[in-house]
TrEMBL record:
It comes from Alteromonas genovensis. Residues 798-812 have a biased composition (Basic and acidic residues). This is Aminopeptidase. Residues 391-595 form the Peptidase M1 membrane alanine aminopeptidase domain. Residues 1-26 form the signal peptide.
C-alpha cells in the first residue's frame, strides 16, 4: 500500500488512559456462527397476506365478518340474586363457508366447580389472579388467604353456571346442543349457507356471583345492613347472556376455553334488551334508553335534557334522592328498554343506591355530534365521583378521538360497583370510593383520586380498543390492553403529568430484566405476569416508537390510520404491524421482533471513549507531539524518590561517557524524515492533498465511542455530549447501526478544535427502557444511593415468646377497644 493511501491518526488519551484502540470488545466479540440478524424481515413470521388481509395491513377486498343480532328479555330477581331470561338470536353468515353448527359462549360456566378454570387453578405460584396463596417452604406453614377461603365457601354454597332450559329454532323445534365447558355447540337443522341467516331462541338462568367473594368481572355487591351502610345491593351484569363465539377468516371458530384471564372476541350486531328490575332501581346499560317516560319521572327527564348542553354535570338522580331511595324497597317492577346498534357486547348495572349525573359532550362531526357522558354511583362514591368520574369520561373522548376516530356511540358511562375496572360498549365498571369517617364525613386519599381518574380513562378508552377496533383479547391481550394503556398514558399526562401513569420506558425495566418475562405475543392465559406483559411493556414500546423512533408526526398518522382502517372490524397483530410500517414509511420489523417476539432487554453500555488527532505527516510537528505525550506520562516512582533523596545520575558524574544520543532522543527529526514528508505530499492526488491539508489546518477532534449490547435488544443510541466550554449537544443514532454487529459497535464523532469532549451519557432522558443506566456514563459516575440506620427487630418465633408474661393477658370481649393495646406487641 502506498503511503498516499494510508490514514494516519495520532492517539492522545484524554477521556481514556488507554494507549491503543482494541480491535473489538473482547468480552462480547462477534464469533463465527453466533451472528443473529436483528433486522431480519418479519414476513416469515407473520401470516401470508391474502384477499381478506392485504400486505399493507388493510382489510382485503374480500374481507368479511359475521353479524349477530340479539333480542333479549331479562328479569333480575333481586332477593334470589338471580337472572332469568330468554333471547332470540339472529346469526348472519357473511363468510364464504357453509356452517353446520354454531358455537355459543357460556361464560358463567367458568364459575362451576368442575370447570377448567377451577380444576386448573394452582395453589400459589406466579400469575394467579384473585386471593393470594403461598406454598409451604421449609419449616414455614403454607398460607391460605381469607379471601381464598371465602371463595371456596361461596362456590360450595351456591349453584353456579347456566341453566339452559330451551334451545329452539323459530318454528319451535328443539335444536340439539352440546355443552363443552364454557362453550355450547348448537347443531343446525339445515346447514347455513353463505349469505344466509338463522334465528333461534335460548331460555337461560343463573345465580349471580358475589364479586367480592369470587373476584369476577361482574356480579353483585351487598352492603351491610347497618346504620353506616344501610344495606342493599349493586348488581353489575356482564358476560351474562349466551352469546356467539367469533367465526373468523384466520381461525374459523374461536373456541378456546374461557379460563378467566383471556377476555373475549365477539361479533358486532344490533341489540334490543328489555331489563325488568325492582321499580325503585336505576339502570345503566349499553345502548340508548327507549322508554324514558315509563321508567323516569318528568323531573328526571327534564334534568337529562338540561344536561345535554350543560358545561358541568347535572344530577338526574341527586345523591340525596339516592340515599332516600335506599330506605324502602318495593315489590313493584319496571322494565327498562335499551337499543344498541353495531356493538360487540352488552352489559348493564342496576341498584336503588345509584345517584346519576350527566353532561353532554359536544363532539361535533357527522358520526355522533352529541355524546351523553354519565356516571352512576352510590353514596359511597361521594364527592370523589361527583368531581372526577364524568369529567374523566369527557377528557378521555377528547384525547382518544384525536388519535383514532370520533366516539361512535350515543352514551359513555362510568358505574361504581365491586369491579375495580372493566369495559363494555358504552358502559364501564369502576371501583374507587370514599371512606366514611366517624364524624359522618367522607374522605378519600390521593391514591383513590388518582385511581378513579386513571381507571375511568382506561376503561372508557377500551370503548375505542377493543369495543370498536375489535381485536381478539383471548389470543392477543396486548392489542387492547397495551394499545389502550399507551393512549390512557397520553390522556393521563394531559390531565396531570405528576400522576405515575406507569407507561414510561423506565416503568418496564425491572420486568424486562426479570426471569418471569415472556414475549408479549404469548397467549394471555400462559403469561406469567399479565400487568407488565400486556399493559406496561407494549405501552412503553409504543411510547418509545412515538417519541424516540418515528417521532410524533409519523407515529400519530400511522396509528390513526390503523384505528380508522379497523374500526368495527377485527384486526390481528400482523395488521397492526404492517399498517404502522406502511403508513409511517419506516421499516420496523426489528422493533416488532425485539419488543414483541423476544425477551431481550435494553442494556447498551458505553465502554470506552478515545480521542484521536490527525497526524500532519510533517515530522517537525508530529515528532514533537509524540515527545510531549511521552513527557506527560507519569514518571517512575523510583525515579521520583531517587531525585528526592538527591541521588546523582551516573552520566552526570562522568561527562566523558556521554555521546550523540544523550543530546538527541528518538523523537529527533532528520532530513531523511523531512524528505519522506515532501515525497508523501507530492504523491497525493490534487483532491487528496486539498482534503488532507484542510484536515491538518482545521485540526479537529476525532472521538471513537465503543458500545456493547448486553441486553440483546437493539435500539437507537441516544447521546448527550458535554463539552469543556459547558455546552451540551444531543445526538440520535438510529438502531440500524447494529445491523451488522448487534453485539458491539463503534462510532466516530468529529468535533471542532475548540469543542473538547469531557463526558458522554447514553439515553440521558431514560427514553429507551435501558435497564442499567450506570454503564451509560463515560467517564463512569459515582452511583447515587442511600444508607439508612436501623434498629434490629426482636425475633417473633414460638421459642422467643414470653409465655410467662403473655399468660397474664386477659381475654377481651368483642366490645372492648383494641386501641388500648397498641404498642404492646413485639416488633
Amino acid at each position: 500500500m502506498s503511503t498516499a493511501k494510508r490514514h494516519f491518526f495520532w492517539l492522545a488519551p484524554v477521556l481514556s488512559m488507554l494507549i491503543s484502540l482494541p480491535s473489538a470488545h473482547a468480552s462480547i466479540k462477534q464469533t463465527k456462527g453466533d451472528f443473529e440478524d436483528k433486522f431480519r424481515q418479519l414476513d416469515e413470521v407473520l401470516p401470508t397476506p391474502n384477499v381478506y388481509r392485504n400486505a399493507a395491513g388493510e382489510p382485503g377486498h374480500q374481507y368479511w365478518q359475521q353479524q349477530v343480532d340479539y333480542d333479549i328479555d331479562v328479569k333480575l330477581l333481586e332477593g334470589e340474586r338471580r337472572i332469568e331470561a330468554k333471547e332470540t338470536i339472529t346469526y348472519h353468515n357473511n363468510s364464504p363457508d357453509t356452517l353446520k353448527y354454531l358455537w355459543i359462549q357460556l361464560d358463567q360456566n367458568k364459575f362451576r366447580d368442575d370447570s377448567m378454570s377451577a380444576l386448573t387453578t394452582t395453589f400459589g405460584g406466579i400469575g394467579n389472579r384473585g386471593p393470594a396463596t403461598e406454598a409451604a417452604s421449609g419449616s414455614k406453614p403454607a398460607k391460605l388467604s381469607m379471601g381464598a377461603l371465602r371463595r371456596q365457601q361461596f362456590v360450595e354454597d351456591n349453584e353456579l353456571g347456566y341453566t339452559i332450559s330451551r334451545v329452539e329454532d323459530k318454528s319451535g323445534n328443539d335444536l340439539r346442543h352440546t355443552t363443552v365447558g364454557t362453550l355450547m355447540r348448537v347443531d343446525l337443522a339445515t346447514p347455513l349457507k353463505p349469505g344466509k341467516k338463522v334465528t333461534f331462541d335460548i331460555d337461560f338462568a343463573f345465580n349471580i356471583v358475589e364479586e367480592d367473594a369470587v373476584s369476577a368481572r361482574a356480579g353483585y355487591e351487598h352492603f351491610p345492613d347497618d346504620e353506616r351502610e344501610g344495606g342493599n345491593d349493586i348488581f353489575l351484569l356482564a358476560q351474562w347472556f349466551p352469546r356467539l363465539a367469533a367465526y373468523t377468516d384466520y381461525e374459523a371458530w374461536t373456541n378456546k376455553e374461557f379460563i378467566g384471564r383471556g377476555e373475549f372476541t365477539l361479533e358486532f350486531g344490533n341489540y334490543e334488551v328489555d331489563i325488568t328490575v325492582p321499580a325503585d332501581h336505576i339502570v345503566s346499560s349499553t345502548g340508548e334508553l327507549q322508554n324514558p317516560k315509563d321508567v323516569l319521572t318528568k323531573t328526571q327527564r327534564d334534568r337529562l335534557k338540561k344536561a345535554e348542553k350543560a358545561d358541568r354535570i347535572v344530577f338526574v338522580v341527586t345523591p340525596e334522592e339516592a340515599i332516600e331511595n335506599e330506605k324502602e324497597g318495593t315489590s313493584k317492577l319496571k322494565t327498562w328498554t335499551f337499543k344498541a346498534e353495531n356493538v360487540r357486547d352488552f352489559a348493564w348495572a342496576s341498584s336503588r343506591k345509584f345517584a346519576w349525573d350527566a353532561r353532554g359532550y359536544q363532539q361535533g362531526g357527522d358520526t355522533q355530534p352529541l355524546v351523553m357522558a354519565m356516571s352512576f354511583y352510590p353514596k359511597e362514591g361521594g364527592e370523589l365521583w361527583q368531581k372526577y368520574s364524568t369529567e374523566s369520561i369527557i377528557h378521555t373522548m377528547d384525547v382518544y378521538s384525536r388519535f383514532s376516530f370520533d366516539y361512535p356511540y350515543p352514551v359513555a358511562q362510568s358505574v361504581n360497583g365491586p369491579v375495580g375496572g372493566m369495559e363494555y360498549p358504552m358502559i364501564t365498571f369502576n371501583g374507587p370510593r370514599t371512606e366514611l369517617q366517624d364524624d359522618g364525613s367522607r374522605t378519600y386519599s390521593l391514591a383513590e383520586k388518582r385511581f378513579l381518574i386513571g381507571v375511568v380513562i382506561h376503561e372508557v378508552g377500551h370503548i375505542y380498543f377493543p369495543m370498536t377496533v375489535n381485536s381478539d383479547e383471548r389470543q392477543w391481550t396486548w392489542m387492547d390492553e397495551g394499545l389502550n394503556s399507551f393512549l390512557d398514558g397520553v390522556a393521563g399526562r394531559e390531565w396531570d403529568p405528576t400522576i405515575p401513569w406507569g407507561v414510561e420506558p423506565r416503568d418496564i425495566t425491572g420486568y424486562m430484566k426479570s426471569q418471569t418475562q415472556v414475549p408479549i405475543m404469548t397467549q394471555s392465559d400462559s403469561v406469567l405476569r399479565l400487568g407488565p406483559n400486556a399493559y406496561t411493556k407494549p405501552a412503553a414500546a409504543l411510547n418509545i416508537l412515538r417519541e424516540t423512533i418515528l417521532g410524533r408526526e409519523l407515529f400519530d398518522f400511522a396509528f390513526k390510520e390503523y384505528a380508522q382502517r379497523w374500526m368495527f372490524k377485527r384486526p390481528t397483530p400482523s395488521d397492526f404491524f404492517r399498517t404502522m410500517e406502511e403508513a409511517s414509511g419506516v421499516d420496523l420489523d426489528w422493533f416488532w421482533r425485539g419488543w414483541f417476539y423476544s425477551t431481550d432487554h435494553v442494556d447498551i453500555s458505553l465502554d470506552s471513549v478515545y480521542k484521536l488527532r490527525l497526524n500532519t505527516e510533517d515530522p517537525d510537528i508530529d515528532f514533537g507531539r509524540e515527545r510531549q505525550t511521552e513527557m506527560e506520562k507519569p514518571q517512575s516512582l523510583t525515579v521520583i524518590r531517587n531525585k528526592e533523596e538527591g541521588k546523582e545520575l551516573w552520566v552526570d558524574r562522568f561527562d566523558d561517557i556521554s555521546d550523540f544520543y544523550d543530546e538527541n532522543d528518538r523523537y529527533t527529526v532528520t532530513n531523511k524524515e523531512r524528505n519522506s514528508y515532501q515525497k508523501f505530499l507530492k504523491g497525493l492526488e490534487p483532491w487528496e492533498r486539498t482534503a488532507f491539508e484542510r484536515a491538518v489546518r482545521e485540526d479537529k477532534n476525532y472521538y471513537v465511542l465503543n458500545f456493547s449490547n448486553h441486553g440483546g435488544l437493539v435500539m437507537p443510541i441516544i447521546l448527550e455530549l458535554a463539552y469543556e466550554d459547558g455546552s451540551t449537544e444531543e445526538m440520535r443514532i438510529p438502531a440500524e447501526i447494529w445491523r451488522r454487529t448487534p453485539k458491539a459497535v463503534s462510532k466516530l464523532i468529529v468535533t471542532e478544535k475548540d469543542k473538547e469532549l469531557v463526558s458522554v451519557t447514553v439515553d440521558p432522558h431514560w427514553e429507551t427502557a435501558d435497564v442499567n443506566v450506570e454503564n451509560n456514563h463515560y467517564p463512569r459516575r459515582i452511583i447515587p444511593s442511600r444508607i439508612e440506620a436501623y434498629k434490629g427487630k426482636s425475633r417473633n418465633s414460638y421459642e422467643y415468646r414470653d409465655l410467662m408474661q403473655d399468660s397474664k393477658t386477659e381475654l377481651k370481649t368483642d366490645d372492648e377497644d383494641d386501641e388500648n393495646d397498641e404498642g404492646n406487641d413485639d416488633e
